[in-house]
Every structure is written in structure tokens, then in C-alpha cells.
Amino acid sequence: MGAQLTFFGGADTVTGSKSLLEYHNRKILVDCGMFQGLKQLRLKNWEPSGIPVSQLDGILLTHAHLDHCGYLPVLVKEGFRGPIHCTGPTKELVEIILKDSAKIQEEEAERANRYGYTIHHPARPLYDLDDVMDCLPLMIPHEYHQWLELGEGIRIQFLNAGHILGSAMIEARMNGQSILFTGDLGTQHPLLLPPPEKVDVADTIVLESTYGDRQHTDGDAKSALQKIIWETYEKDGDLIIPTFAVERAQELLFLLSVLKVENKLPDVPIYLDSPMGVSATAVMLHANEWHMLSHAQIQAMDRVAKLIVDVQSSKKAVADPRPKIVLAGSGMITGGRVLHYLDKGLADPCNTILLVGYQAEGTRGRTLENGAQDLKFFGSYHPVRATIRKMDYLSGHADQRDIMDWLRQFKHPPKNVLINHGEPHASDALRAKIHHELGWNCEVAHMHQTYQII
After folding, report:
1. Sequence-separated (6 or more) residues with CB below 8 Å from residue 377
2. What is the pLDDT of residues 177-194, one digit of tens each?
3. Topology of domain 221-390, per CATH?
4. If residue 81 lies in a helix (H) or strand (E), which one and from where to where?
5. Among 145, 230, 302, 354, fewest CB within 10 Å belongs to which?
6. Domain ranges in the chain?
7. CA 257, CA 302: separation in Å to the nearest integer?
8. Which of the 8 DSSP states describes residue 440?
9. What is the C-alpha separation between 325 and 320, in angstroms, rounded?
10. Which CATH number fits domain 4-214+396-452: 3.60.15.10, 3.40.630.30, 3.20.20.70, 3.40.50.1220?
11. Average pLDDT for residues 135-139, to the nearest whole number?
12. Are 405 and 184 in contact (CB under 8 A)?
């Protein structure tokens, strides 16, 4: 029997990544992500996944973002007890992210029940903290380039993907053939991390396409951030930055620390109001071998902002009348503490809301990016009078140019490229680009479709 691959997520969409690799009697799930964004996607989290949980021999994680690891507690609730392999930083970050995810779900269900804005009686979380705690003992950390035997002649290794701390591509070898899962590829010039590794040979590539149809804006992230900060300060307003807790929060802290060292910041308080962001920052600060920061840069990052964890301090920061800079989760405004800052500040034209990452379709972040006049949260609509800005320079995803440059370093064309993890127009644009410029055999992967790869 040859190897085959079935997509249970991350195909026809940019979220919910789950790919089932089958070879002989082994079944290995690559990533186990939660669906986010559009309601019809989020509802899939509650539907039977189709994954043969009782037959799974293991799970491999490319990185710790929720759309790649957030469904783990559901599979464990369904009986999965096998190993979950990942890098060391991924293991630490997954614990932080899953605990935060469970907490947010529990709080949102409690709020919906208290105020009655739910069609479910009662509203309930997809999973809770106890479910998360059941996952954690199953996780096994590994270094990059450490070969791992999975049985039936399958061996894998993790390679640096340059996306977030500990992010990995997964190279799987079996029967003399190789499959490379890119996970989420970083840019060619990440701010804090080494760029994605070059790979010489692969028979099949499973390739992400988040930005497969576009190129990031060229520019200087530090200068752009400095300009937005001063524009907002001169209006006596708050700069509110919905922030991804992992990587984006640390990149922003780094840029702010550099500006502070250079005396280019106004004298305003800076808050990182995200328990998960604070914990993720602590992981980065002690994982010296996984990033490119010097000790002095780490110290400057550690001092630049007031780190808020407890609720009372968060409420004080929200109520603080002074102009301020706030980094608060979540990055796509799907929940988290940023909603409380928006509740107070979204209607104030003196304020600026700065979007600093990919905003998935169906999220509040995408709604703001598209120019909405009002935004719904906490059960009601809020007028949008603050200035909405978008800064692309900090994307953790390779754009089309980065992906094409990375593909060109292969010594031989792969037999096939399966394009996943992208909205349909982005995936198809990348497919057409690869076929036209490289002449490679490639196709866009579709949900619940099985592909023979060996």
C-alpha cells in the first residue's frame, strides 16, 4: 500500500489545519487546528470531524497557533491518547494557547448565558481547562533535525519554518520517498527569527498559501509604527493594537523597545494586556537558541511595557484617561481583552486601531479592515469612529514572492505540490504561478479528499 493524504481542515480555507497521513497500518495526523472566522467554519468545530481517532498512532504539530493546535482537546475528549510530537517551544506555547482558549470559551459561554444573547440554552464551551490538562502529558518535545521513527518505515524530522518561535516544517520519509509539510512558512526576512530553512529535495510538498495571491507592502515596520504612534499622540488619543499573543506581541515589543532606546517615543504608558502574550513573551525571552535576539535586546523588550495579567489591572488600564499604547489580544478581535478597550475607545475619533496581521474572513478584524461603520461584540453594535490602520510589514507568513523564491532553491522539481491553508482565490493564484513559472505539477487540495502521494 502506498501513502495517502486526506485533508480534514486547512483545505478550501485558511484555518482548521488537519492532514491525515496513512502508510501501511500507520495513521498520523499532521496538525490539529480549530476552525476560526466565518460562522459556517466555526460550526465545523462542533461537527464530527471524520478523523479516525481510535486508530490514530500519533499527531505531529508544525506550530502553536490555534488554527494548527486548537482542536487537540476535542480529539483527547474523543479518546485519543497517543503521542503528540512537536518542538520544545511549540510544547510550551501550546500549553499557554490552549489554556487561554479554554478560558475564553468558558468566559464567553458564561457571559452569553448571563446576558441571554445565545440561541443555545445553556451556551457551553467547545472544551474546558480540564480537557486541556488531559492533552499536556501527551506532548513530546524535539529539536530541529532530530529524526524520529514512527513505525512501518516512517521517519520524520522537524525543520525551521521561520513563522513563530519553534515553528517547523515536517519532513516525512518512507519507502525511499519524502513528503514535506511546510506548515506556515515565514518570510525571507523575519524580524526575530532565522528565515525558513532551504530544502533541496522532496517528492511531494504540502504547501501553505495564506498570501498566495499577493505581496506584502515593502517598507520599514519601525518607521511606520513610529509615525502611527505620533499621529495618534498628537490627537491626544489611544493607539489600540489587537495583538496575536505569539510572535506578533513580541515583535511589537521589540520595535517599541528600539524606538524607546532611540528616544523616538512620546512619554505615554505602554501596556501589554494579554496574559497569554505575557506568558509567550517569557517563553521567548528564555529560549535563546530559537531566536536571533541579543541579551541587551531581550532586556530592553522586557522593560518597555507594563505587563498586565490580572483582571483588576486590566480594568485600570482600560479606564486610564491618559493617551496610551495598548497591545491586547486577540489579533483578529475574535475575543479577549481588546474588546474592552474597543468598548471604550472604538467610537472616539481621536483613537487609532492598528491591525498588524492577517485578518481571516468572518472575523471582526476583517470587518474593520473592510471599512465597517459598526462592529458587533458583547451582544450589541458599536459605532466605528476611531481611525483604522493596517500595517503589513510584520506578517509572519511568506507572501507569494517569498514562497516562489523558497521553491526555486529545490534541486529537482517535486512530483507533486498540494496547495493548502489558503482562501480559494489565494490557493488557486499560487497554483497558477507555480505552474506558469516553474512548470511543476501542482493542485489545490480540497476538504475530505484523499490523495495518493506514493
Report:
1. 333, 339, 342, 343, 364
2. 999 999 999 999 889 999
3. Rossmann fold (3.40.50)
4. none
5. 145
6. 4-214+396-452, 221-390
7. 8
8. -
9. 11
10. 3.60.15.10
11. 98
12. no
**pLDDT tens for each residue of 328-376:** 988 999 888 999 999 999 999 999 999 998 898 889 999 999 999 999 9
Record the cell numbers describing residue 421, joined without a space: 491553508
Q: Count Cβ neighbours within 10 Å for each residue of 188-216 and write b for 16 or more, e otherwise.
A: eebbbbebbbebeebbbbbbbbbbbbeeb
pLDDT in tens, 57-75: 999 999 999 999 999 999 9
Helix axes 221-234, 248-261, angle to 10 degrees: 70
Residue 141's SS3 state is: strand
Grid cell 471604550 is found at: 344
pLDDT computed for residue 119 by the predictor: 66
Note if the pTM is more than 0.85: yes
Write the burial class of residue 234 (CB in 10 Å: 0-12 exposed, 13-18 middle, 19+ buried).
exposed
β-sheet bridge partners, residue 85: 60, 140
